Each structure stands twice: as C-alpha cells, then as structure tokens.
Please model this.
Amino acid sequence: MALVVRNLALDLSSPEDALPELAARRLKVPPNAIREWHPVRRSVDARERDNICLVYHVELTLDGGAVAERSALRRIHGRNVDVVKPRRRHDPTPGTKSLPHRPVIIGFGPAGMFAALRLAELGYQPLVLERGRPVRQRHRDVLRDYYRRREFNPESNILFGEGGAGTYSDGKLYTRVSDPLVREVMELLVRDGANPDILVDSRPHVGSDKLPRICWNIRNRIERLGGEIRFESRLDDIAVGDEGIEALVVNGQRLEARNVILAIGHSARDTIRVLAGRGVRMEAKPFQFGVRIEHPQDVVDRWQYGTLAGHDRLPPAEYHLVAKGAAGRHGDLFSFCMCPGGQILPTNESPGLIATNGASKSRRGGPMANAGLVITLGPDVIDADPLYGLDFLERWERLAFQCTNGSYAAPAQRASDFLDRRDSNGTFETTYPFGLAWRSIRNILPPEVSDALDRGLRMLDGRLPGFGGGESILTGPETRASSPVRIVRDPLLRQSPTCTGLYPCGEGAGYAGGIISAAVDGIKSADSIINEYAPLACATAS
Ligand SMILES: Cc1cc2nc3c(=O)[nH]c(=O)nc-3n(C[C@H](O)[C@H](O)[C@H](O)COP(=O)(O)OP(=O)(O)OC[C@H]3O[C@@H](n4cnc5c(N)ncnc54)[C@H](O)[C@@H]3O)c2cc1C
Model:
C-alpha cells in the first residue's frame, strides 16, 4: 500500500526536500517515519499574487508499511490523503477471426501513430500509409523550402508528414478526456523520450523541439515490432462494395484492404471530400474561428505573477481566458492553445491559404506569448451540407492570403487599433516566419467573429490592462482549432455505418481535439480490430 498526500503548498523559497516534513505533519507522524516519497503532481497556485506557491501531491510509504499507513489514515480521517490504488492496464482481448489482410492505418499523426503502436505491440503487423515525409526531410521542406524560399509543399508541411500536426504542435498534453488510456499514452511518450516531468506537471508540455525525436523513436519501435510505415503514400480514393471497404487507391495504385483506420487529421480536406463523394457518411459539426493574439511574454508574466514575475521557480506564465457572452448567440470568446514563449506558425495544407496556430519549444524561452482567441460557430451557422464548414473556412483563409497580396505574410493589426477602427503602423517584432502585414483584421473575419472580438477584447482588457492595447498584436485567421466535419461512426463498432471496415478516428473525424485525445481515440480504434480478429502471427501459424 502507499498513500498520496494531496495539496502540500511550498512557498517559492522552500526546496522540494521540504515536502516529506510537510507530509509528515499532515499525517501526524514524525518526519523519519517516511520511508520513500516522490511528487506525483505539481502545479503553481497564483490566485493570490503576493502569496504564490507551488502545490504538490506526494506519494509515500511509511515505516511499518500498510499497518502504519492505515493507522495514519484513521488518525486524520483521510482528509486530503488517498490510498494509492493499483493501476490495471486495460489490454484488449484478441478475437478469433482471421484477418484477410494486414490492418491499414491512413495517417501517422498521434491517432494513427498510437493505433499503429497498439496493433504492432499485439502482433497485428499494421501497415501505415502517410502522405507526408519522414520527420528529417519534413524539417527541410518546412524550414528551408517553405520558410526561406516560400516554396510550399502540399504533401510535406506543418500539418502533413511523420507525426502529423502533432510534430510541429506545442505539445501541451492536457486534455479534458478522462480515461485510463490518457496515463498510458503519457507513459508511452516518456518511454520514447519525453521528459518524465509530464507525468507530474499539472500542465504537462513537451515542446516542438522534442516532439520530432519522440515521433522517430515511436516509428522505430513500430517497425521493430513488425509494423510498416510507408511515407509519401497518399490515400487518393477507396473502393467500397456491398460488404464494406474492399480496396484503397494509394498514389494511383490499388491496394486490397478490409480493415482501415482513417486517422487523416482535420486538414486533409481533399481526402475528406473524396470520401464524402464515395458515400462515407459525414455530418457538419461546430468549429472555432478567431485570431491569434501575441504579447511580450514579460507582460503576461506580470499579469500572472505581479512582482514575482521572472522568479526562477515560476514557469513562463500562461492564461486561459473567457469573455462570457461576448459572441452573443454564439456564446463566449475564449483563449485557446496558449503558447508561452512561443511562435505563431503558418498552418495551411494547401498553397494560397493563410491559417495560423502556435507552438513553443520545451523551455518556452522565447520573448513572445501567443494564443488563439476564438468563438465556436454552430450549430445555427452550420448548413445541412456536411462539408459546409470546410468550404467556409477555406474561403476565409484564401481571402487572408489575397489580402496580403499572396506574400504569405499574415494580416495583422494592433488590438488597440482594431478596437478604435484605425490602421496600424510602425514596426513590430513578430515570431511569424513570413512577417506581418498591417491590415484591418475585420476584413478577414466573418462579422460575428469581429463583433465577438470587439466585445471580448474590451472585457479582457478590463481584467488584464493592456490585453487589448498597443503591444498586443492580432493576426489571423485562426481556423484550425477543430474539425468542422464529423465522419460518422457506430459508437460501439467504431466503423462507418456506410462503409464497414472503415474506422474513422482522431481529430479529422471529429472525435478528438488535441494530441492526447487523438492518441487515445486511435488506441481505441485499434482495440476494436484487436477484439474481433486474431493477431496475424497467430493466424498464420494456425
Ligand atoms: C501548430 C499547432 C500547435 C498545436 N498545439 C497543440 C498542443 O499544444 N496540444 C495539443 O493537444 N494539440 C495541439 N495541436 C493539435 C494537435 O496537433 C492535433 O489535435 C493532433 O495532431 C491531431 O492528431 P490526428 O492524428 O488526429 O491528426 P493529424 O496530427 O493531423 O495527423 C493526420 C496525418 O494524416 C496524414 N494524412 C492526411 N491525409 C492523408 C491521406 N489522404 N493519405 C495518407 N495520409 C494522410 C497527414 O499527413 C497527417 O500526418 C496543435 C496543432 C498545430 C497545427
């Protein structure tokens, strides 16, 4: 048995070594009664700016073992202390049917990658088809060809390639999904190179500098276990018969397949359109639209930490803000994917579009902080056409590109100028690789988004003075927060009701909203195949 003592607060001058003594006091035992201890959760409590502290949950054992631990629990009536429950892995039970072909996974982002890892670990020798390139070549395509030469590669970019959108993402790993698989995914990430701190931090973050290596390690592991990953292999089409999926068309070639996990992300608009044309059932879903807002990081630190800004025990500050009701019938304007010390990235998957998102490196040491400021459109904006949102977003992204004369510079405006309806001028440092072009941001936003931004910025500026000021830069549009389409699936079988054998999953199918939720969704789709079929090695032997 072991205990977890919750919510032990350390002031910024006390080292972590002071934790056992605090825990002992809570348990009413002498400090030397604690045999082993380690922190299992760490967060910053900055609610009171003159009393910022670090808050820990500590797991420990006592001298005297279970007897001493139970007696301590009784003594303090279990307040703020839990018994550690043994964790059970939820491995699926392999089925007995024979697989006619290897299971195929389309897309090697977090959903496809973790589906492949699961299948490979249990002997199913998955075949992964990924349209983009391996991470090293992808880096060249992005950093040299796109950033430096402005030569955009529609198959290898910030969204497409090994690791999917996850590779260039910020790597924040918090999720609202509550599932034992969340912990399992985090542990798998640590096994392949993520900092073990992600298992302890309340706001775990990997960083875009560490993610490529982790993806590479996971790919090698899948290959060692009998999986195969084919890069530069794009799913162009599918062949569907009475029994469901029969074959895939990949780079123009037919490939027989009966069990296909579709993990294509939400930016594979071409593939989504092809599948819709083949009768794969889809429906429109709510999606986000807004801008990126960028401030100097030291300003954000002062908002959050006051005079303690810059303290070496405090991480670069984050915010999560909601301007309640600012979007009228669309609800709130809210911040999304905040990247302290980060960079704004061009997240288009086709030439001639501008879409923005943000990321940061593991140390979050950059001078600027950025975040999405978005509203949710739908359901009343959503048309009966399932692909309405896709076309809608693309129209605005194209307009943004045209409004900066096709230069890939992002349209930008100072927040104060946006509120006063004036043009911005002067120079400003930006992290966006192609620079900014001063434009009226209202011209690249649907009216409901501009209005929400107008109201919301004023509300947030009232709370954080300067949030909507002259040092605050709006760029946009921010249109890739979530998928505007859901590829319908049976909730139990996880297969398309109109295409048996096709398992839509991850963010692109509308079932995930980030790295961890996509990975968990991918594992669950793999488990559906595992539960039905025997592993390939077994089937071949029998
Ligand atoms: C800049 C940025 C920052 C982000 N920051 C965070 C963050 O901090 N935390 C977080 O949780 N999430 C973040 N996200 C979101 C996160 O990256 C996604 O939610 C996640 O990657 C979705 O995983 P997925 O596997 O469903 O899809 P994707 O990661 O989009 O992967 C889909 C893959 O499918 C491939 N593909 C598409 N079509 C085809 C085809 N026809 N044939 C073959 N392959 C195909 C693509 O090339 C791609 O590799 C960020 C995203 C971006 C762009």
User: Anything to note?
Assistant: Residues 3-83 form a domain with the Alpha-Beta Plaits fold (CATH 3.30.70.2700). The mean pLDDT is 94. The radius of gyration is 25 Å. The first helix runs from residue 19 to 27.
